[in-house]
Amino acid sequence: MSLLKRKKKDAAEANGSGDAEAVATPTKGERMGQAKDLAVHHGTHKSIDVAGWVDSRVNATGIFTAMMSRHVPKGTNWFYTLGSATMFIFAMQAITGVFLSMYYTPSATQAYASITHMTNEVFMGEFVRGMHKWGASLMIILIFLHMARTFFFGAYKYPRELNWVIGVVLLILTTVMGLTGYLLPFDQRSFWATIVANNITASGPIVGPYLADFLRAGPDFSATTLSRFYALHMMVVPGLMAALIGAHLFFVVKLGTTAPPWVRAVRPKGARPQEEVTAGVAREDLDEVPVNGAVAAVAVEEPPVDQANAEAAEAEAVETTEAEETEAAVAPEEPAAEAAAEEAAEAPAEEAPAAEEPAADETAPEEPPADPADAPSEDDGDGEVKS
Ligand code: HEM
Fold first, then answer.
1. Please, what's the largest Cα pairwise distance for the chain?
2. Which of 237, 308, 364, 381 could join 387 via S-S bond, C-beta 3.0 to 4.6 A?
3. Of 252, 257, 258, 263, which is best to mutate to test ligand 1, by the most ligand atoms within 8 angstroms of its C-beta?
4. Are 229 and 183 in the same domain?
5. What count of Cα atoms within 13 Å lies in the side-chain half-sphere of residue 195?
6. How many other C-beta atoms are found inside a 10 Å radius of the C-beta of residue 7?
7. Number of structural domains, the chain?
8. Which residues contact 372 (CB under 8 A, 6 or more apart)?
9. Is residue 83 within 6 Å of ligand 1 at its C-beta?
10. Do 153 and 250 have their domain in common?
């Protein structure tokens, strides 16, 4: 059964009529669309979409969307373009470098001549060489500015530490590109400047001398030094950089970019409310300390200015009185018992400010209650004083 007939049948069944002929005749546009569907289906459509065919196999649209259609934090500004600008210069260096390599000869005897030839005689040679030369300086400036942006915006912190480390390696490799490229014209200036740079490298701690030997390709500066610098500049370092830039971008896409430090984070909708913690008392401590102890701690630290604290002080006074009364009760035979009982009656008035200053608490009793059960309970167990 053809696709058209099957569609008609499906539509008829969906209508509930069961009669294929009863379905309305398709319009001209619908018929053309159906014909195209069929042609694509059978592979006979002439203008078959090559990009779509490739896309359906490699999911280029998906990758592009993931890279480019991203949410960026509020406050994203021009400073966020510095990384892309560095990457643009890296690409430009790679393209101009390919053209330069078509005319450059990496030999100690011919390097300089090949450079003068490409500058003076090759079409646009001076322009391309100038772009490569200025691009090198620009890349160093941009990479430092980009690094400063990520540093001052705190983008090196969790979870982006690894991207920072990759960035540091990229910075080192960028300077290695500058060093190795400087020697390639092999004129007086580049020759002596490289000797100086090599001697500085050799003065580095522990690995310095080995690194200098490796770069020189032996104990002395020679023709092989130029070959080594050329290989590093043309293949090793750019290859490493391309791979690391790929990893760097992967992390940028995966983790997103950091908001500027002056943009306040908004609590996501539906987030758990933040727990309130009683001032001066750590929540974990409250769980350990007996309930009344915690209340007393709050009351002692802050003088009883409101009713809640006045009640707390009152509770403390009640405890003290009871303790002293008990003491007096267990030693009735002692001659000083009477005096002790009198002292016990006076003591709460000195120790409990709430009892002495009824103005702070209108409801405070003049005499402390005899029964501890009468003492008011201020704490509901969560460590917060209720008023
Ligand atoms: C070849 C050199 C480099 C290229 C091509 C490059 C490229 C990029 C790009 C395109 C971004 C995303 C956009 C932006 O924030 O600017 C980025 C982000 C980042 N780069 Fe680089 N970068 C390079 C070197 C460095 C260096 C030297 C560091 C630090 C040492 C660094 C650390 C970071 C960090 C931490 C982020 C994340 C920024 C954020 O989350 O806000 N990058 N890089």
1. 125
2. 308
3. 252
4. yes
5. 9
6. 16
7. 2
8. 318, 319, 322
9. yes
10. yes
Same domain, 122 and 249: yes
Both 33 and 174 in one domain: the answer is no
Question: pLDDT tens digits, residue range 62-106?
Answer: 989 988 888 899 999 999 999 999 999 999 999 999 999 999 999
Using CA atoms, how far residue 38 sits from 2, 29, 215, in Å, is: 9, 14, 65
Residue 358's region, left for phi above 0, alpha for psi from -120 to 50, else beta, is: alpha
Q: Work out which ligand 1 atom sits closest to the CA atom of 173.
A: 1
Token digits of residue 294: 């915690």
Residue positions counted in the chain: 387
What's the pLDDT tens digit per position in 280-332?
655 555 554 444 444 444 444 444 445 555 555 555 555 554 444 444 444 44
Instruction: Please give the angle made by the CA atoms of 68, 69 and 71, to the nearest 5 degrees.
Output: 115
CA distance 127 to 34: 56
Task: State which residues form the domain around 245.
Answer: 77-262
What residue type is assigned to position 240 of the chain?
L
Residues near 281 by beta carbon (within 8 Å), at least 6 away in sequence: 294, 297, 298, 383
Domain holding 241: CATH number?
1.20.810.10
In a domain, 208, yes or no: yes
The C-alpha atoms of residue 281 and residue 245 are separated, in whole angstroms, by: 50
Closest ligand 1 atom to 168 CA: 30
Q: Is the CB of 144 under 6 A from ligand 1?
A: no
The H or E element containing residue 95 is helix 82-101
Structure tokens at 273: 């409310």
Q: Does the predicted TM-score (pTM) go above 0.85?
A: no
Provide the sign of the torsion angle of the four alpha carbons 241, 242, 248, 251, taken in this order: negative
